[in-house]
Amino acid sequence: MEEGDNSTAANVARAIAAALDWSSPPDARKAAVAYLESVKNGDVRVLANTSLLLVRKDWSSEIRLHGFKMLQHLVRFRWDEFSISERREFANYTINLVVEVVGSHEEWALKSQMAALVAEVVRREGIALWHELLPSIVSLSNKGPTEAELVAMILRWLPEDITVHNEDLEGDRRRILLRGLTESLTEILPLLYSLLEKHFVAALTEHSRQQVDLAKQHAATVTAALNAVNAYAEWAPVPDLAKYGLIHGCGSLLPYNEFRLHACEFFKFISQRKRPVDATGSEFDSAMNMIFQILMNVSRDFLNGSMSNSGSIDENEYEFAESICESMVALGSSNMQCILVDRGMTSQFLQQMLEYYQHYKIALHFQSLLFWLALLREPSSKGKSIAQVSGDNLSVGNLGFGGGPIDKDKKWVSLFITDEVCAAILDVSFRRMLKKNVTSGTATSLEPLELWSDELEGKSDFSQYRSRLLELLKLTASQKPLVAAARVSQRIDTIIKNANHQSMSHQDLAVMESTQLGLEAVVGSIFDGSDESLSSNPEIKFQLHTIFAGLLQQLLCLKWTEPASAVLLGRYLDALGPYLKHYPDSVTGVVNKLFELLTSLPCTIQDPSSNNARHARLQICSSFIRISRAADKSLLPHMKAIADTMGYLQAEGRLLRGEHNLLGEAFLVMASSAGIQQQQEVLAWQLEPLSKVWTPLEWQNTYLSEPFGLTYLFSDVQFMWSIFHAVTFFEKALKRSGSKKSNINLQGSVGPTTNPTYLHPISSHLSWMLPPLLRLLRSIHALWSEPIAQVLPGELKAAKGMSPVEQTSLLGESSLKLPKGNLAAATGDGPSMEMSREGDSKENDIRNWLKGIRDSGYNVIGLSTTIGDTFFRCIEGSSVALALVENVQSMEFRHIRQLIHLVLVPLVKNCPVDLWEAYIINLLHPLLLHCHQALSCSWSSLLNEARAKVPDNIGNLLGSELKVEVMEEKLLRDLTREVCSLLSALASPNLNSGLPSLEQIGPTNRVEASHLKNVESYVSNSLIGFLMLHKGTALPALRISLEVFTWTDGEAVTKIIPFCGAIILLAISSNNQEVREFVAKDLFFAIIQGLALESNAIISADLLGLCREIYVYLSERDPAPRQVLMSLPNITKDDLLGFEDALSKTSSPKEQKQHLRSLLILATGNKLKALAAQKVTNVITNVTARSRTSAPISGPTVEEDGAIGLAAIT
């Protein structure tokens, strides 16, 4: 080492100390970090010598750790800069470093980093180096426990690039590493077993001699060896793991507290392995059978102890039991075929899993729930299509049936799913549908179970957990319908008898509500129409009818008149909707009972105390909708009777407008089962009275003709809400009418519109519905414009601010519930506000009205664009643009986002080609101009001043200023993503069918000039091409597409990629110079800038793909791509020539992307964080004491650091 290296090392050490010293001035820390980066990116030999000096023992631990990380950086990113001899010299020097860090008092983090460095050198230099090192590694492990621990760490790090994804090792390098390590398993696996056995025995021996320090050293070696074994358990052949004793060895460690959690990790990994299809299948089955026996023996001991004396089991035992149960779930879900031939073992295994499911500890029950889901899904997947629940990996098809004929294995499993097993699962599932109430104890004191609570960690959330329970109920009911029907009926009967019918407590209501969900799941599963046993077995069908007819009669006899209990009774009745579909004779009683419940509650709107009753009435009306949907045609014969009852109640003033709308929506659902003609008749009946209120010019001229007209409307409360209900019903009519399978979707086109003869039943009504709505929306938008906004009454100014519900939603909080009068809460659909409620302030009434009209009005327009050409032919594009974007400069971000999402995206996707200019250009030109200016300003403020500047009126917010800042940033990001979604919609393939794909263009970068077209030739078959001819609209869109790459929002970048891809295709296939120059220079550079942001790491592959397309297809036609690359700081001309030479030798897009990736990393000095992110995680990953996942964490952990006690080893 030269003197200069010592000086540099000293400078680097001071810089490290300064960078880590938070008391240092910010400028000093910034300068220190910059200096460290300059060393990392400077001369590679200076970096090597300096780093090797810094890892010596005469430096502090912090500096030595940084030195190891610098060495890892060098090996990972700059190894190729060394000559062959220098690489071997460096490798030998690194191995010699092992001696420097070996010591009983050396910190675990340093030893781990040293081991990672050695493993990295081996991976970079090749497996041949490992074969040379192996004898010395074995020799080192025999010296003592600390040396053996370090060897185990090296062995653990070696397969890192096999078990953790790393793009650098795609292809040959990964295969070579895997092949080399596989060939070395005959030496590695026996060595690991030897380390486990030798040091475990030594730890016990030294502990018995009370040599605590020495026992700790041996125990640390055992732990390190277990971590290494776990690294091989994921990929090494299972028969080899059994052959060399590792399965037996890890099983022997399960009784010992110090090692059992690590040993459980081994079994969890190996239990998920799939049976090979080669000749080693029988050996695999034998190994798995051994694992079944090991885990079941440990499990049996715990379950016996838990049942006999649960009070003696502490939390550590339960934690261990949870790990065992998790391993058994993985084993049973992946390799059940290994024990099916042994009926006794299979029965014992399922019995243990059932006992876990019945266990009062929620963690054990939760693990077993995943197993039963996987087990019951498998036989159901052939006869039924059960909806999957996201959040777990045990989907249909995961259950291991690889050992023989699949149908035979499934039949074997079904033999063990007895009525008793299903009954036990059902009983536990019903009881566990409750959630613990932290403020008032548990939901019911009758449940001797540890119920779900928000304090549980790592178990998703209650809604997901309950969804899994409901799915299990459905699966069980599909297997054993009679058992499920009987159990749910008994459960409801018991609850009804125990409940206080006069005034139900919160406890009773919670139990009733949870059981209603269970009833809904069971009935839906039994009567969903896919179970052939119902039609083929009359006896089963009769017994089911008897059970549910009795239950229905019991429900119809109940006299529950309190609002909350009446709502629950309505929900119990609509849960039986699928049953009514098969037994329509019961419909009359249900309809009469719902009307009885409705009329038993007061409907006055003057009494503030009636809010709960009016909320309950809305919920009961929504039950009609659910029954109409589930019972299908069974309600058709009753439509006239229902209509007569509605008319009678309305004439007596006992049916409010909002309730009438919900019942009208139910009629639309009923009519959808009868065909288009019936829908048209129902729509005419429903819309005729509304048109008499909606179409007259008198109210429009009075309230919508001048800027302050709406202030007069707010004084006419009755008419104000009648307008509200008209708009909300228009929305419902659009959603509910049309072909039953039309798939009306705001994000896509409507199925029936592909049929030119199809006419949507509401089409004829759009001509009178839309003009007043557009005038109304224009007037609402004007309330935010200057100078009108300045002179509005105080209550109207305040009403324009956010409601507490909106604030809570933006903050991601869930503690604040929607108001009880909320229509969305009642129907699960529709606008977010309901009728005016006496007792609420007028400010809240106006706010609710404005939000409801805006939400539903936007939805009406958006849905109207999806039902064919009627919308576009019955109204002028200029009037739509005037209403929607005249005052876009004054709109708040949240409102622009709604406008884009609900109106503009579906309009763009469904607009006829001949009206693109009249609609799309007229709407997008002012919108994109404003959005570009507003987003640029807000993002600049956020990035430079750490606070987004948004125009939104947050309203009154009790809390810290930080909450306001969070909401402002959320508003900014939401609008950014929505604007990018709009641009993505412009690039939809069905709107750009004229653009050729890259496959059509071919892999060559030499596109013949004669094949290039004018942009004008794309105007009728490419919306992107059409847009480029309207520069006023195209320019802000293109500017947004550039700037979004610098806005630190990976989701927005994801959404903009299709737009950029379409622009690139246009540049490749056309001869337009402006588009080509934009893509070749501006877009190419912007994407590279985007790769500098770590927020774009998840989509870095897509961004590289865009860069590749630009360079491969345009670099021969335009000098800009080469100029952009040559402008990068660390590139040379030779680097570029080498890159182009590599490109010319392959036509594989994947390999070309990899070459480009390597070049960009080199050219930017590894400054592209989106590309470096994945690599860094592989460099500094460490195994924790609890788990080892494929998503490694950053930095060394301390969970295995410190003293290791052996008190439990006796």
UniProtKB/TrEMBL annotation:
GO cellular component, one term: nucleus
Residue span, Exportin-5 C-terminal domain: 315-1175
GO molecular function, one term: nuclear export signal receptor activity
UniProt-annotated stretches for the region Disordered: 823-842
Residue intervals of the Exportin-1/Importin-beta-like domain: 108-266
InterPro entries noted in UniProt: ARM-like (IPR011989), ARM-type_fold (IPR016024), Exportin-1/Importin-b-like (IPR013598), Exportin-5_C (IPR045478), XPO1/5 (IPR045065)
GO biological process terms held by the UniProt record: protein export from nucleus; RNA export from nucleus
Pfam families, A to Z: Exportin-5, Xpo1
SUPFAM superfamilies, per database record: ARM repeat
Protein name as it appears in the record: Protein HASTY 1
Lineage of producing organism: Eukaryota, Viridiplantae, Streptophyta, Embryophyta, Tracheophyta
